[in-house]
Structure formats: structure tokens, C-alpha cells
Amino acid sequence: PRAVRSRTPCSFVAAMELGAVAPTPRVDLVLDPVARVAEQAAKAASHADWGPVFVYGAMTLPQSWDALIGRMPEMRAAKLRGHKRRTVRCGGFAALIEQRGGIVLGQLVCGLRPAERRLLDRVVDDGFELVEASVRCLDDFDGPDTECTTYFWREEFEDALDMEADWDVEHFTENCLPEFLELCGDLRQSQKAEGLSDEELRAVAARRQRPGAEEDDDS
What are the pLDDT tens digits along the chain (219 aa)? Predict the structure, then answer.
């Protein structure tokens, strides 16, 4: 911000010329309009929405959000063109890969706070990367596409996918959801109670997904 010059009061100048001891005048910082807007934006950042994110697997389920952030965010049914959804063999998660002419149905999540979005990033496997995307909301089919981000499965890990069929929500709910909800709850409590760093939160997630994790936790 631009430096602000303060005018020295005449009475203070007169006192100094007479050799009197006077207190140093207090000068309040005056911000120019640009600096004032920047300060307001910084204060709001901790409560701001970091933008919508398109989810298409475990995070379409209300139970997952309740375990991860303790509330149900605003969600709108949406579709993503040019992709297909498959299953990660280890863990049963849904994965997104490119396919010309493909369509993936999911939910556009809005209004996540930074701490909540940080938790979402941490619960996602390292095989994913966050990418920009454009989806069409089904409640506004004739409207414009919505710019967002989503989690895309890394090409170098495609051999870990079951390429034969789409992700099955019923199979995931019956066989994988309880363990996933436990992971979400662990991450949420760790972040809330201990203020863990990104690296420490990721370590918690990796430990829970490792075979024999229950024995490790009990030791």
C-alpha cells in the first residue's frame, strides 16, 4: 500500500522549538482504497467459498459429508461430458477418466469453507489430481455450463482401475462405506482437535487405508 504522510501539529512544532518535552504524536494508519479492499478480502478469506467442486462417487452420499464436515453442503445434480467413471480396485472408490462422448452424473458441491475443502482434499487418494472442469446442472438444463474443479484419476495409475463397468454405489455402500466413514471421522477430529498440517493429515489417511491399520492404531 502507498505510504501515508502525516502532518505534524503546529502546537507540537512550537513545543519542540521551545525545548519542551512533548509526547510523540500518535498517527493512525490510513489505508488507500486498494489496500482497504485487500484487507477486507483477507479477513473474509477464512470464511469464503473456494468455488464449486464436482463429485461423482463416495462424496455424493450424505453420510460421507456428515462424517467429514458435520453438515450437508449445498449440492446440485450435474453432468460432466467427455469422461467416464470406473472403480479403483483397491478401496472401491469411483475414478474419473477421459472418454470421448462419455457422460458422468454427479453432484456439484457449493459453499465449502477453506477448512472443509482442505478436508475433502485430504480424504481423496493420492491417485487423483485436482483439475478444472465444466459441468451442466440438471436443474438448469438450458443454462450455461458451470466452471468448477473435480478429482481426475492420474493416467499413470490406470492399471489400478476396473475398466469393465461403471462404479456401483450399492456395492460401495455395502462393502466399503463403513471404513470410509471411519476415515472421514478420523480426519475431521484430527484437524479439529490437533490442528494437524497437510502432511500429517495425509499420513493419517494413509495409515487408515493400509492393511492391518486397526492393529497399528491399537498399539
Answer: 433 334 444 443 333 344 444 444 544 555 566 555 555 444 444 445 679 999 999 999 999 999 999 999 999 999 999 999 999 998 899 999 999 999 999 999 999 999 999 999 999 999 999 999 999 999 988 889 999 999 999 999 999 999 988 999 999 999 999 999 999 999 999 887 666 567 776 777 777 666 555 444 444
Q: Are the C-beta atoms of residues 97 and 161 closer than 8 Å to each other?
A: yes
**In 154-195, which ranges are E strands?**
161-162
Q: Would the pTM of this model clear 0.85, i.e. be above it? A: no
State the sign of the Cα–Cα–Cα–Cα dihedral 156, 161, 165, 169. Answer: negative
Distance from the Cα of residue 73 to its chain's centroid: 12
Half-sphere exposure of 186 (CA within 13 A, CB side): 21
**Element spanning 60, H or E:** none
Smallest CA-to-CA distance from 122 within 132, 135, 112 is with 112
Q: Crossing angle for the helix pair 114-123 and 62-69, nearest 10 degrees?
A: 110
- Cα dihedral 39→43→47→52 (10° resolution): 10
| Spatial separation of the C-alpha atoms in residues 150 and 54, rounded to whole Å | 5
User: Based on the number of CB atoms within 10 Å of its own CB, is 155 exposed (0-12), middle (13-18) or buried (19 or more)?
Assistant: exposed
